[in-house]
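Q: Okay, next protein. This is Fimbrial protein from Allomesorhizobium camelthorni. I've checked the sequence twice, so it should be correct. Can you predict the 3D structure?
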Amino acid sequence: MARPTIDDNEEKPLDPAVEKVRRKLVRFVAINLGLLFLALMAVLAAIVYKTGAPSEVATVGGNEAVPAPAESGVIAGEIMLPAGARLVSHSLSENRITLDAELAGGGRAIFLYDIAEKRVIGRFDLKSE
């Protein structure tokens, strides 16, 4: 095997057309890395903004606000159902709770409770035809 001469190890200047393409490629990579960096900073800024300190009033849907829970971290209250009623299911939507109850007489009713107002705002008896 022949030893390479010193002249073969030296870099030869690129053809002007190839050099022009290389410069365009380097500029393209630099611009794209800059845009990627800006997008990453925008995402990080959004995460920091979203994880800011919580307010003292927790909003539970709509424009109404429910006071934040006391130091115990629990909102407490009572929902009065008719005597002998048995709760079958419940559902929460924004600041309202629907309670599906089986009444003492064998019928069923759905009660609509508003958390912000802390009162039952509707009763719907279920009947079949």
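A: Here is a summary of the prediction. The first strand starts at residue 57 and ends at 59. The chain is about 30% helix and 30% strand.
Q: Noted. On to the next one.
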